[in-house]
UniProtKB/TrEMBL annotation:
Key word Endoplasmic reticulum present: no
A Pfam family recorded for this sequence: DUF418
Upper classification of the organism: Bacteria, Bacillati, Bacillota, Bacilli, Bacillales
Transmembrane segments: 12-31, 51-78, 90-108, 114-129, 136-162, 203-224, 245-262, 274-299, 319-342, 348-366
Organism in which the protein naturally occurs: Bacillus carboniphilus
UniProt entry tagged with the keyword Transmembrane: yes
Protein's recorded name: DUF418 domain-containing protein
Length: 397
């Protein structure tokens, strides 16, 4: 199976595999917030796990998802055009319901939702669909540069390059104790009210800041869609290889700086300074590129294609699995009073187990059905017509 193989109606399998891989990273990076293990000082193994997160996970996987969103936007629009549908109106409808999913996700379960931001930024993306590749590239570079400059200016005027401000840490610890108390003592409805009061303003203000970054990566995904990059992997194999090597080499200096900063921070919490965020963001761009190119090239090899194939089931049900990760962890950590009771290291083990179960569930589900449950609902709401859920028996020719 090469990257040009398709699943169902023209699905590019490599994109499902990359999306499935990204879901593992998303789960790992979200688990500390889901479980409350990000609220206190870290030491021993947990400190090393946090360093691993900063080096290899933090910002890397939402960058991959943002890239895939932009690419998926192009695929959706071109297929809708072939069917002679009103593409802007249809995609706007799709975004509206994604926004609704995101608001419910945020309101009912977790303040770290990303769907709301993706939906809102997606409306801006529509403006770029008809633009030329060169125009899209210029906008992407400009937006990313502007975002990095904002981080740089914030870093120069704020927190020390080598240590987290003591007041910030103490404040975060106080907030952590308050959050644990809320999750372990309040009823569900009272917890929802508390979370809105505690997190809503901060959530929307923080996401305003990250819009530039997300839109820039959306545009890179759109650009790759326009250039048919993932339909031409064999043809572009040497370019993929050069990009893979160069992105890895560019990740080395930022990783060294992140390591040095981390090593010089004595009292470690999950919160990091703007200086750290600046370099973590830079490494997120380069390592996300390395991950994407590495997986794409690996799928050209029979052995790695077989090994990575299970990830495509998770990726094909990405919305279902993303929301399920939140619901399952909420039930376990809030429902059973375990919030704030596990370590960062234990959270990693829990994440891996949950992800393996999601692979198994996705595989079984997709043996019988064309879409994941949430994908089916989203499609129904988007087109206004109930799609068939059950798979039809197909005769292979």
């Amino acid at each position: 199976m090469d990257s040009q193989s398709v699943l169902g109606k023209e699905r590019i399998i490599s994109l499902d595999v990359i999306r499935g891989f990204a879901l593992l990273g998303i789960l790992l990076v979200n688990m500390p917030s889901h479980s409350g293990s990000d609220l206190f000082f870290l030491s021993g193994m947990d400190k090393q796990v946090l360093l691993f997160f900063h080096l290899f996970i933090q910002t890397k996987f939402y960058t991959i998802f943002s890239f895939l969103f932009g690419l998926g936007f192009y695929i959706f629009m071109t297929r809708a055009e072939k069917k002679e549908l009103a593409v802007n109106r249809l995609f706007s409808r799709r975004l509206f319901f994604l926004l609704l999913f995101g608001i419910l996700h945020f309101a009912l379960f977790w303040e770290g939702d990303i769907l709301t931001t993706y939906a809102l930024v997606g409306f801006i993306l529509i403006l770029f669909y008809k633009r030329k590749p060169r125009t899209i590239l210029i906008w992407a570079i400009s937006l990313m540069t502007f975002y990095l400059l904002l981080l740089l200016l914030g870093s120069l005027s704020g927190t020390s390059i080598y240590e987290i401000d003591e007041g910030m840490v103490n404040y975060s610890i106080e907030e952590g104790e308050e959050k644990v108390a809320a999750y372990t003592s309040l009823s569900y409805l009272d917890l929802v009210k508390w979370r809105w009061a505690d997190s809503a303003v901060e959530y929307f203000s923080n996401n305003l800041f990250i819009v530039f970054d997300i839109l820039a990566v959306f545009l890179i995904g759109l650009l790759c869609g326009k250039l048919k990059v993932f339909n031409r992997v064999k043809e572009l194999k040497n370019r993929f290889r050069r990009l893979q090597i160069s992105s890895l080499l560019l990740s080395v200096p930022t990783s060294i700086i992140i390591y040095k900063m981390f090593a010089l921070t004595e009292d470690v919490t999950y919160i990091f300074s703007l200086w750290q965020l600046l370099f973590i963001t830079l490494s997120g761009i380069t390592l996300a590129t390395f991950y994407i190119t590495t997986i794409t090239l690996a799928l050209e090899k029979a052995f790695w294609s077989k090994m990575l194939n299970p990830l495509r089931y998770v990726g094909q049900m990405a919305l279902t699995n993303y929301l399920a990760q939140t619901v399952i962890t909420f039930i376990i950590f809030y429902g059973f009073g375990l919030f704030g009771q596990i370590t960062l290291s234990q959270g990693v083990i829990f994440s891996i187990i949950l992800y393996i179960l999601q692979i198994a569930f996705s595989y079984i589900w997709l043996k019988n059905y064309q879409f994941g449950p949430m994908e089916w609902l989203w499609r129904w709401l988007t087109y206004g017509k109930k799609p068939a859920m059950k798979k039809r028996m197909e005769v292979e020719g």
